[in-house]
Structures are given as structure tokens and as C-alpha cells.
Design goal:
single chain, alpha+beta, six-stranded antiparallel β-barrel, five-stranded antiparallel beta sheet
Length: 325
């Protein structure tokens, strides 16, 4: 009976306590592994998101930059050579292809038209017939009512809005202008379509286009002009800060041949300790230092991980105008 009793007596208290201790240790190890795995997963996922966000943000900016200056055609009297520009009632304030506003995070303003015919200039053969605001041209292909027209007369230019266009089959054709400043027989007229002025900036951790957030996780933009030694040269000789170029001086503005951009994306996971000490837009030199990336407005900025995306964008619509500048 004693042997049978021992077989049915179960576990002793000591055995149960040892089993519980082993189980607790195993649970602690499992929880620690899960915690480390989860932390690593958040770092990896956050870095992947930053990688994606930075790439998309840079793509959005570059896509618009490729259009900067279109369709200011490289003709003998290129619009980029206008020393005087009258904007009339168009609401347009500049035809400068690209301007950068320097700041803790820079703002890029990109300007271009959308003419389907590339803004090819037409000679004005007559003015004032059949009505006072009608310009007679050989053809008006690519011109539409409501578009912006650029009137060129040597180095004097004027922008006006098109209020009417004769049928394409009409020869000679007429284009009715809301204002006729600078429009004279022998001058040139180019239809540039809808004129766009696009701002890219960073606000509250988002890349904004025209004040509308389009990409999250972007905390800074830095940009510089790539300038040549002369307007008729397309070779970038130096990278300069935006506030060193006077855009109202066309001899300085037309030396801008490229833009260098750095977009800073942030992993949204805040670490327990500092993981970032400094950020660099790109590798600079003594004569052309890289712009500083200052994120100190956020007291915890060093506890985040960042990705910096940098590229150089040639201003092809300016480069193509080299022989006329």
C-alpha cells in the first residue's frame, strides 16, 4: 500500500516551485526576445518608411524641376533675356524658372507653362484688326482662350491673357489679348498656356506642395544653385547659397544652370537615447560648403534616425537657351 500511495501522491511543493521558477524564467526570456524583436521591427519598418517617403518626396520635386522655365523658348530674343517684364492683370509676379528661399528649411518655387506647342513664338503681322485688342499672326496653333501670352519686343516683354482665338482654319489667324502692352507689328507673341508657380516647403513634418501636405515624414529641404561663369556656358563652376544670387539681375539669374537638393526624411520611432549627432546635406568643399541641416527646433531631434536623399537637377530649359543668352 505504501508503494501504491507514493505512485499516486503527485508533485511535492518543492517540485511545483521549481517548475514555476523554470516557467517564469522561460516566460521572461520569451518576453525579452519578443520585445527586442518588436523594437527591431519598428526600427526596420520606420527606416523603410523613411526610405520610401524620402524617395517619393525627391521624385515629386525633381519632376516639377524638370519643367522649370518651359516653354520660354531659346529664340533670338529669348524671354530669359527680358530686362523689363510687364505682368499686367495676369496675377503673375515672375518668369524666373526657379527661385530658392533660404531658411532653416528651404522653399523652392518652380515656374513653368504647359503649352502643347512648346511656346513657339509667332510674328505679329498686324495689330488692331478687326478689334483693337486683336493680334494678327500666321497661325495660332497651341493657343487657347484663358491661356497666358508672352509678347516679346527685343528685351522688353509683357504678359497678358488670351480672351479669344480665331478658328485654327482661319488664315491669317487672330489672337485677342486682354492687354496690348508691347504688342506691335513686327514683335513676337508666344502662347505659354497655363502659367504654374509651384512652391515646395516643409511644415510640421510634411512635404507641402502649394501648402497642401503630400508626403509625410519629411523634416527638412536644403538646396543650392549651380552657377556657371557666364550666361552662355552650361558648365557649373560653383554651388552657391540662394541668398548670394540676385534674381532681379538677369546676368546672375541666367547663370543658374542646375539645382542641388537634399531632402531629409525621419524615422517616426523615437529612441530611448540619442542616435543622431549631426546631419550633412552632402559632401561639400572649402570653396563650396554644404548647407547646414538644423533640426534643433525639436528638442528630441537626436533621438530619431534620418535618411538624407540628395540629387542634382540640370535646368534643361535654361541650358537649351545657352546660345541666345
Amino acid at each position: 500500500q505504501s508503494t501504491l500511495f507514493r505512485k499516486h501522491s503527485g508533485f511535492t511543493l518543492v517540485e511545483i516551485m521549481v517548475g514555476l521558477a523554470i516557467g517564469m524564467l522561460a516566460t521572461l526570456v520569451i518576453l525579452q526576445v519578443i520585445s527586442m524583436f518588436e523594437a527591431q521591427k519598428r526600427v526596420t519598418t520606420g527606416s523603410a518608411d523613411a526610405q520610401t517617403n524620402g524617395s517619393v518626396a525627391l521624385y515629386q520635386i525633381v519632376r516639377e524641376l524638370n519643367l522649370a522655365g518651359y516653354p520660354l523658348m531659346p529664340v533670338d530674343n529669348s524671354p530669359l533675356e527680358c530686362t523689363t517684364v510687364t505682368f499686367g492683370s495676369t496675377g503673375i509676379t515672375s518668369i524666373t524658372p526657379i527661385s530658392i528661399t533660404n531658411g532653416t528649411s528651404d522653399t523652392l518655387t518652380i515656374r513653368y507653362g504647359n503649352s502643347a506647342m512648346g511656346g513657339i513664338p509667332m510674328t505679329i503681322t498686324g495689330m488692331g484688326a478687326p478689334t483693337a485688342n486683336d493680334a494678327t499672326v500666321n497661325n495660332n496653333l497651341g493657343c487657347e482662350t484663358g491661356d497666358i501670352a508672352l509678347v516679346l519686343n527685343s528685351a522688353t516683354c509683357a504678359l497678358t491673357r488670351i480672351t479669344d482665338v480665331s478658328p485654327a482654319s482661319t488664315v491669317p489667324a487672330t489672337i485677342t489679348l486682354s492687354e496690348t502692352t508691347n504688342a506691335i507689328a513686327g514683335g513676337s507673341l508666344a502662347c505659354v498656356g497655363v502659367w504654374n508657380e509651384i512652391d515646395f516647403s516643409v511644415n510640421n513634418g510634411n512635404l507641402e506642395r502649394e501648402g497642401t501636405p503630400i508626403v509625410a515624414g519629411i523634416v527638412n529641404i536644403q538646396a543650392q544653385y549651380g552657377v556657371s561663369t557666364a550666361t552662355d556656358s552650361n558648365q557649373v563652376s560653383q554651388w552657391v547659397e540662394p541668398d548670394t544670387v540676385n534674381l532681379t539681375d538677369i546676368s546672375q539669374r541666367n547663370r543658374i544652370k542646375a539645382v542641388r537638393i537634399a531632402v531629409v526624411a525621419r524615422n517616426d520611432k523615437m529612441e530611448a537615447n540619442n542616435v543622431t549627432t549631426a546631419l550633412s546635406a552632402w559632401t561639400g568643399s572649402a570653396s563650396s560648403p554644404a548647407p547646414a541641416i538644423d533640426l534643433s527646433a525639436d528638442a528630441d531631434w537626436q533621438r530619431y534616425r534620418y535618411r538624407v536623399f540628395e540629387t542634382i537637377v540640370p535646368l534643361r530649359n535654361v541650358i537649351w537657351s545657352r546660345d541666345t543668352l
